[in-house]
Amino acid sequence: MSSAASEQPRPVRFGILGCAGIARKLARAIHLAPGATVTAIGSRSEAKARRFAADNGLDAGVRVHGSYEALLDDPDVDAVYLPLPTSLHVRWATAAAGRGKHVLLEKPTALCTADLDAIVAACEAASVQFMDSTMMMHNLRTGRMREVLADKDAIGDIRMINSMLSFHAHEDFLQNDIRVKPDLDALGALGDLGWYCIRATLWAVDYELPKTVTALREPVKNQAGVLLACGASMHWEDGKVATFTCSFLASSAMDVTVVGTKGSLRLTDFVIPYEETSAAFSVASKLGVKELAIGWGPQPSQHVVATDLPQEALMVQEFARLVRNIRDAGADPEGMWPAITRKTQVVVDAVKVSIDKGCQPVDVTG
């Protein structure tokens, strides 16, 4: 074996805890990401785990476990991707951390901030890495947009942020999907879709928490009381304002607009890019109305960011890098990711409390 080959670090060995639909996407992402591999699949039945492995073209050597406990006890698993219903996150994420497994946790990460704090505390006690799986954070476009927002000459000071995320769910989804079941994912559309809008908003303001949150009036709930559509406004002490709407009942939309004192940034596919290999956004700066108000300009500039890996594989790649630093070099876990997750969860909580209080303003406390 050549010295170059011998110097290659061991890949991070992932166990996938549960066979949810989103786990298929992550199995592919782990396969595509350098330095990562799927080692094991765990389900409540060995037959289901075996079927998942076969259906997703996983290597014949991948272990299949007929219980979540068996996967967590597997000594050849370094990290766990956990796509279980939100109501099960505290139990299984803390169990994974307790067994020394690094935790990549599906969003929404918890039903409330107190539950998330328990998960993060377990990860900190075990010195394992925690990260939520908000994939858009790892798109190369996200870093490029950060550079644009930092350009005070182009954008100025941010004053408004508007976002929307929706898809028109079919009847079977509205009756049977875990995201409409109060015992599985009680946050409904707020947790599944609103999470992204809140994360994008916080990202745009460099994770400064708003002072107050006020839910929009007349949120839509199903008969079990789970949110199918809702929204909120957020207000900062310096006058910034953000609004978001999310819905299982409207056509697909994934828009974010950030407006500053000198310009604006917009994208219309902020959660899932239209294409895997590139992602676009537009920037409008120093706009003005023409004489006689017959038009305005200049036209927004279009920016396209190319990538060799889809955003979910970039997420796995970054998570695996952090895990290797801990496993192989004795580094401490990166604290930025749990901090960002917690701020997102805090705002989700505030929106839920505002809804429960009849859409009254709620102070946000970190």
UniProtKB/TrEMBL annotation:
Q: In this record, what's one Pfam family?
A: GFO_IDH_MocA_C3
Q: Which GO terms describe its molecular function?
A: nucleotide binding
The Gfo/Idh/MocA-like oxidoreductase N-terminal domain, residue ranges: 12-131
SUPFAM superfamilies from the entry? Glyceraldehyde-3-phosphate dehydrogenase-like, C-terminal domain, NAD(P)-binding Rossmann-fold domains
Domain of life (superkingdom): Eukaryota
Residues forming the GFO/IDH/MocA-like oxidoreductase domain are: 149-266
Extent of the signal sequence: none
Q: Which residue spans adopt a coiled-coil conformation according to this UniProt entry?
A: none
Supply the Gene3D superfamilies for this chain: Dihydrodipicolinate Reductase, domain 2 (3.30.360.10), NAD(P)-binding Rossmann-like Domain (3.40.50.720)
Q: Which family does it belong to?
A: Belongs to the Gfo/Idh/MocA family.
Q: Mind telling me what this protein is named?
A: Uncharacterized protein
Upper classification of the organism: Eukaryota, Viridiplantae, Streptophyta, Embryophyta, Tracheophyta
